[in-house]
Amino acid sequence: MKLTILQGRKIPLAWLLLSRQPLRLFVALAGICFAGILMFMQLGFRDGLFDASVTVHKLFDADLVLMSPRSMSSISMSGFPRRRLIQAMAHPDVLGITPVNWNFLLWRNPQTLSTRSILALGFEPNDSLLIDPELSRKAQALKSRGRVLFDELSRNEFGPIPLWFREGRIIETELAGKRVRVAGLVSLGPSFGADGNILTSRETFLELLPSTPPGSIELGLVRLNPEVDSEIVAASLSASLPSDVKVLTKNDFVEFEKNYWRTSTSIGFIFSLGAAMGFVVGCVIVYQILYSDVSDHLPEYATLMAMGYRLKTLFGVVAREGILLAVMGYLPAYAAGQGLYSLVRNFTKLPVNMDPERAILVFIMILFMCMGSALVAMRRLVDADPAEIF
Amino acid sequence: MSLVSRFPSHKDSIQIRQNPSVVINGLSHWFGKGSMRRMVLESISMEIDSGEVVLLTGPSGCGKTTLLTLIGALRNVQEGDLKVLGKQLFNSGRKTRQKLRRQIGMIFQGHNLLRCLTAEQNVQMGSDLLAGFSYSARRDQAREWLRAVGLHDQMSKLPHDLSGGQKQRVAIARALAARPKLLLADEPTAALDSVTGREIVDLLKRLALEQSISVLMVTHDPRILDVADRLLQMEDGKLVPSYG
Description:
The complex is a heterodimer of chains A (about 400) and B (about 240).
Chain A: H1 2-8, H2 13-19, H3 22-52, H4 55-59, E1 64-67, E2 80-81, H5 83-88, E3 94-108, E4 115-123, H6 135-139, E5 147-151, H7 161-166, E6 172-175, E7 178-186, E8 197-201, H8 202-208, E9 216-217, E10 219-224, H9 230-240, E11 246-249, H10 250-264, H11 267-296, H12 298-307, H13 311-348, H14 356-381
Parallel strand pairs in A: 4-8, 5-7
Antiparallel strand pairs in A: 1-10, 1-11, 2-9, 3-4, 3-10, 5-8, 6-7
Chain B: H1 2-6, H2 10-16, E1 22-31, E2 38-48, E3 53-57, H3 64-71, E4 79-84, E5 87-88, H4 94-101, E6 104-107, H5 119-127, H6 135-148, H7 164-177, E7 182-186, H8 194-211, E8 214-218, E9 230-235, E10 238-240
Parallel strand pairs in B: 3-8, 3-9, 6-7, 7-8
Antiparallel strand pairs in B: 1-2, 1-4, 4-5, 9-10
């Protein structure tokens, strides 16, 4: 086996063709890298925005979620009777429930005194709201009236609350026109619809928003016996409860929200188009480079054919040039993508990460781009006529 | 087709001879199409025995290079009988010609080295055509050949760092590295001064003798005619019956 590999080894012509023309190689790599970065950024933004729409959704401690059929998305949640959640409790596989009030309230930045809409979640401090085990301890502070837990990942426009809180200052500000005090920090993250979040007790929530009917909630969290299939329970609850409430598994709940942003906005289209532009630009650059490379070396390719090299071998050389360009162009694009993602995370607090699926997708796109261009450039090789070189 | 049948006894006659490298019978060739069609070779018949050094001269445009490319299996034979190293090239497929080319060394007027490869790598492109040798064996062979043409100290230079004579030596080494049985050279001394040209031709002749390779060399250069075992002259697409 080793012997055949050694015997098969040849002069690395593809590599030498590329590396002995450093300027052309540099231009090609810069082009591929640019296309790669463009694709990384556009797809990253797209996925990041969709993921951002469900940052809070993912954190809920729930297997099933009850919501009103009139709720379209996190920015337009409608209420439904709290009784439905209590009724769900009757199902033998249901272990616990948490009624949640969900609405946007105006928060006054204590530093600049400007107001901004923030997502407020109201729940009973003794109920489990989030997966985060720390919360039940922090939630005890909410038992006093007019206390809120502030999301430290909220955008900076809400004021330097985390900083002040850690300095030990007492932070009191206005929420929906009423005085509240920050009793602690939690870590949720801004989402597409909400630039910031606060948690408060149901009692405080109703005080802040007296128009909310006391028997109405926007979200019902249901925790199930871990041994049962949540899909089946969801179906049976759905069948037994009246139609003024909708039962979703947590995954469906997350997808429901993402789907809203995907279908009701042009985000997906815009960013996919941006990525496609990057792809096309990359194709044009790589094609130009490979085509002129083949054209410049046409007499040399013809010489090789005159020596008895097969056309297929020469196609292989061009194909290898394509693969080499793809790999060498992808690596810096990947590194730059990582850097730009962390930049975007810092500035927008959007969850834009280099996930492996996207990394592979962009690599495949770049490979496709290079191999497609190589394939077209190969057509030029057919013009290499060994009879012409004498 | 008709020409092949016109010489029914041809096959037998070859086998009686001592395996000539090239056998040509009634080879004609045209360029262009329709009214522009122009005959460049007219009923050429000749042979080159193995180990023979044959020089082909004649005014430019008389069809020497066309004949060379036909023998080198670089063109389709249009009419006539052309056997190179035992392979009939009339009506031959692309694959047959490509395989045959591996056994024919070619030296061009312009050296046609690969610009991106060093002298050693260029020669190895020739020895890489040989099957059954490891990479290091093929590299060693390439170095041997460069030593044989007197370039052992220029191995890692790129073509543009070599002089014209040195490039032509590399080209010879590359042609020989594939261990051809037939060597075709098209004016290998045209781009060289007389002293260098002489050296190159002597080198070619010596190496061809050592390897018992047949050589067909097209040349204008009257100073090198003496290396030939036989001289052929061409005029207007025809071989001129001559001394030799």
